[in-house]
Design a protein that fits this description.
There is one protein chain. The protein contains 13 helices and seven strands. The chain is of the alpha/beta class and 304 residues long. It folds into two domains: 13-100 and 208-302, Vaccinia Virus protein VP39 (Rossmann fold, 3-Layer(aba) Sandwich); 108-206, Putative methyltransferase TM0872, insert domain (DNA polymerase, domain 1, Orthogonal Bundle). Helix 2 (37-45) links the parallel strand 1 and strand 2. Helix 7 (143-152) packs antiparallel against helix 8, helix 7 (143-152) packs across helix 10 and helix 11 runs parallel beside helix 12 (236-250). Bound molecules: S-adenosylmethionine (SAM). Residues 8, 10, 32, 34-38, 54-57, 60, 81-82, 100-102, 104, 126, 211 line the site of S-adenosylmethionine.
Length: 304
């Protein structure tokens, strides 16, 4: 790849642009800048908007700083985990929040990052400065810990077998070695036998579900008014978190379920869910970019 080639195709691009195109003056926080596709589209389509562009990946930030150079007066770049970005910028006029969670194509395709089946490291860290990596998880976690990860984060049916095979045959030195090992020893269905175990390891390494919940907690406590929140997720574990928070924010009554009469004032609804069903890619988008196939976008708007 040459340095100007864009390594990631943004998913649901037109749908994201439509979501934010009519917003009045203010800032949108792009929690997951990645390679800047969504950010560039938003800057191009809505001149009222300034962006706070956040990512925890140094390579992604360096690339997107160059890509968005011509908009530099309208962009603040921030390196960090998205669980912290709301607190850092909540005093600005935040009219929108976008999170396109998961890994970028560059992370998946670059062998030294160790996310893909051909990786020559066992890394999988989105933030290259963090301590925990896939090497620690695969080679040092106990069999019980591995079972939990494969069951809870990978939804692997044969989670016990995968954990036990890994423990008996480790150490592994690269994701390629681990993927080939799983391919040889596990049943081959529609998915590559390493797909779900890798998902589990990646979620553990980056605490992906924990930080998503923290992001929602931060958004909730910031008491935004009129802000549009759009979240793109890539698997059911993430989508469930998104759905549950949006549902919680529409509830008028927050009394515990066991009370006989409402005493909370019945006025706690924070806004409305804009997408009764999630927005998913068209067959044409999936054909052009197969990695978009599992994406789902849900949108919530806080009351003004
Ligand atoms: C799917 S890509 C985003 C692509 C981007 N929308 C584009 O148009 O190029 C996801 C990005 O989110 C980043 N990311 C994932 N989880 C994160 C987190 N908890 N905090 C900050 N960045 C995160 C990854 O490093 C990756 O660059």
């Amino acid at each position: 790849m040459n340095e100007n080639q864009i390594p990631h195709i943004p998913v649901l691009f037109n749908e994201v642009i439509d979501t934010f195109k009519d917003l009045k003056e203010g800032y949108i926080i792009d929690c997951t800048l990645g390679y800047g596709g969504h950010s560039e589209g938003i800057l191009e389509s809505n001149s009222n908007i300034k962006l706070i562009c956040n990512d925890q990946d140094d390579e992604a930030l360096a690339f997107s700083k160059k890509r968005l150079e011509k908009y530099k007066d309208r962009v603040i770049f921030n390196k960090g985990n998205f669980k912290d970005v709301i607190d850092s910028f909540k005093d600005k006029n935040i009219v929108g929040i976008l999170a396109d969670i998961g890994v970028s194509s560059l992370q998946l395709d670059k062998n030294d990052r160790g996310f893909g089946f051909d990786g020559d490291t066992l890394d999988m860290r989105m933030d290259q400065n963090q301590h925990l990596s896939a090497n620690e998880v695969v080679n040092n976690y106990s069999q019980n810990q591995l079972e939990d990860i494969f069951r809870n984060y990978g939804e692997v049916k044969e989670y016990k077998k995968v954990a036990s095979l890994i423990v008996q045959n480790r150490p592994f030195t690269s994701s390629k070695e681990l993927a080939q090992f799983l391919s040889k020893n596990m049943y081959k269905g529609k998915l590559h036998p390493a797909t779900l175990p890798f998902q589990g390891i990646r979620i553990e390494v980056n605490n992906e579900l924990g930080v998503l919940e923290e992001l929602f907690d931060k958004i909730e406590s910031a008491n935004f008014r009129g802000t549009t929140v759009a979240i793109i997720s890539f698997h059911s574990l993430e989508d469930r978190i998104v759905k549950n928070y949006f549902k919680k924010w529409t509830q008028k009554c927050i009394c515990p379920p066991q009370v006989m009469r409402c005493t909370c004032g019945n006025n706690h609804q924070k806004g409305k869910v804009i997408t009764k069903k999630p927005i998913i890619p068209t067959p044409q988008e999936i054909k052009q970019n197969p990695r978009s196939r599992s994406s789902k976008m849900r949108i919530f708007k806080f009351d003004s």
